[in-house]
Sequence to fold (162 residues):
Amino acid sequence: GYMLSTEVFSEGTPLIIRTLEGDSEVIASKDRYIMIGVFGEVYSMRATTFEKIYSPSNQASDRDPEDMAPGDLFYLPTIRNKITGESKNLKRIRIFAKTCTPKDEAYIYAKPLEKKTKLIRDGYSYMNGEPGDFIACRSNVDSVFIINRKVFEKTYDRIISD
Fold:
């Protein structure tokens, strides 16, 4: 699922998004989406990247977070206003998320991590990875990221292995 960051906090608000791989700092804007993954994990994405990868829908997500199995959520996803400290729990907010589908087959290049890894992004955001998680990049978008092992296994099919 996805939603505009401005649907959570007003435009211009500096945010800290608690992701599976670490905290990410972004500014709420009409150019920044909040993505919600298969296990309820959240992360942000620039609109230009979203538009290259996904076809948006105005259809509401059909998965009610209150009906999620206890093992579905790895952690409690939150977005916090960096200035005021106000925190919003995305377990309830995701009710308002819309669905999106990949435009094409989504190819990524990925390799399992062999040791704990911290990936610094944009100079101030970071992603942490554990052995067995994956470091990855998309074939059609210029970005490097870490994917939790369980998310990777549920989301991607392995085509080539080394």
The chain has a mean pLDDT of 80.
